[in-house]
Amino acid sequence: MGLLAVSGALGLTAPSTASAAVATAATAAGGLAHHTPLSARSALKRLMAGNCRFVKGEMIHPHQCPERRLDVATHQEPFAQVFSCIDSRVPPEVVFDQGLGDLFVIRTGAQTLDELVQGSVEFGPLEYGTPLVVVMGHQRCGAVVAAVESLEHGKDLGPYLNRIVSALKPAYDAAKASSVPKHKLVDATTRWQTTLTVRALEADPRLAPLISAGRLAVQGAYHSLDSGRVTWF
Ligand SMILES: [Zn+2]
């Protein structure tokens, strides 16, 4: 179960205009910048507020000034970590309206995970106490489109892109098993890829104890290219 499902019982829902405004004011004043590490719930609220600004076109571009650059030059305390796709349209710092020192970001094609990448995902929570890892897929993911075409038609993409195809096959198989219409296969594969990646990270032997202790949450997400809105699993 994702953090959001847990958070629902705690009263955490998508930010209202009022709460987004409070978050905006607090962030603009630097009020949140030095309160790390936040709880996973607070970190998620902060991402939600930033995405709300992005969707409305009301970005404040926090922490992108020379003073911030100097402030984080010798230390960092990112409040969240985002694992997303390499796609040029989904940069987490833009989608969540954040700045320098705010996020650890890991990006691979269709947020595919292997042992090397998993080490990078472990880095924030284990070394910096980052309380939240967001795994974010997105609409019309080109890597998923290519992988689905390859798997449907046996297309060879070459030795390295084939590794991405192999990494996406469990998600493709799960989508096929759910009998989605063909025109929704890419989207379903993307969502399954996010779900399976969340599960894999939750099972990580070094992350699982942090999750059990309430010090870390792994949250699935989906970014709509059309609206800019991030929805939460
Ligand atoms: Zn993508």
Share of helical residues: 40-55%
Instruction: Determine the number of helices (DSSP H or I, runs of at least 4 residues).
Output: 10
- Order of strands in the sheet with the most strands? 2-1-3-4-5
The ordered H/E elements are HHHHEHEHEHHHHEE
* Main beta sheet strand tally, sense and closure: 5 strands, mixed
Number of strands: 5
Query: What Rg do the Cα atoms give?
Result: 18 Å
The CATH topology is Beta-carbonic Anhydrase, Chain A
Distance between the termini: 9 Å
Name of the top-level CATH class: Alpha Beta
Number of domains: 1
Which cofactor or ligand species appear?
zinc ion
- Percent of sequence in beta strands: 5-15%
- What structural category do the secondary elements indicate? alpha/beta
Low-pLDDT parts are 6-36
> From the 3D coordinates, which CATH architecture would you assign?
3-Layer(aba) Sandwich
Overall geometry = globular
Q: What is the assigned CATH homologous superfamily?
A: Carbonic anhydrase
Q: What's the overall average pLDDT, rounded?
A: 88
Explain this structure.
The protein has a single domain, classed as Carbonic anhydrase (Beta-carbonic Anhydrase, Chain A), CATH 3.40.1050. Helix content is 48%, strand content 12%. It is built from ten helices and five strands. The protein has a five-stranded mixed β-sheet. A hairpin with a 6-residue loop joins strand 4 and strand 5. Helix 2 packs across helix 3, helix 7 crosses helix 8 and helix 8 packs across helix 9. The chain starts with a helix and ends with a strand. The relative contact order is 0.15. Bound molecules: zinc ion (ZN).
